[in-house]
Amino acid sequence: MLILITYCFGLALHYSVSKSNEGETTAGFGRGLLHGALMPGGMPSLLLGKDVVIYATNNNGRMYKLGYTMGVNVCGALFFGYTYWRINRLRRKE
User: Fold this and answer.
1) Neighbouring-strand partners of residue 59
2) Who wins on pLDDT, 91 or 19?
3) Residue 39 has pLDDT above 80, yes or no
4) 70, exposed or middle or buried, with CB in 10 Å at 0-12, 13-18, 19+?
5) Are 53 and 11 in contact (CB under 8 A)?
6) Cα gap 58→91, rounded to integer Å
7) What integer pLDDT is reported at residue 33 of this predicted model?
8) How does pLDDT run across 51-81, given as a tens digit for each residue?
9) Per the count of CB atoms within 10 A, which of 20, 23, 32, 57 is most buried?
10) According to the model, what pLDDT value does residue 70 have?
11) Measured between alpha carbons, how far is 29 from 68 in angstroms, rounded to an integer?
């Protein structure tokens, strides 16, 4: 189930980045934040052989990159924070 969910996140990321690259407007901080948060979901798609675009080449530079980096870090902090919280909770029960 988890693989299916992350595969769907990968498809959403691919769609969003592809649309950003096709459009006239450049991707800014907000889209960078979205693309960074969805980027870990691209891994199952990549492992299954689908070439998923994970970064908008049509971006405004530094602000997009800051948003992208922040999105990746926030997503990682939420995932690992939740994981460590669950592990500590299970240890306390023992």
Assistant:
1) 27
2) 91
3) yes
4) middle
5) no
6) 47
7) 92
8) 878 888 888 999 999 999 999 999 889 888 8
9) 32
10) 95
11) 7
Asked if residues 74 and 34 have their Cβ atoms less than 8 Å apart, the reply is no
Question: Burial, 85: exposed, middle or buried (Cβ in 10 Å; 0-12, 13-18, 19+)?
Answer: exposed
Please tell me what DSSP assigns to residue 40.
G
User: How many whole angstroms separate alpha carbon 36 and alpha carbon 2?
Assistant: 19
What burial letters (b/e) apply to 26-65, b meaning 16+ CB within 10 Å?
bbbbebbbbbbbbbbbbbbbeeeeeebbbbbeebbeebbe
Whose tokens are 């891994």? That residue is: 43
How distant, in Å, are the alpha carbons of 23, 53, 90, 94 from that of 71? 22, 16, 29, 35
- Counted residue by residue, the chain has a size of 94
Instruction: Give the dihedral sign, CA 76/74/1/85.
Output: positive
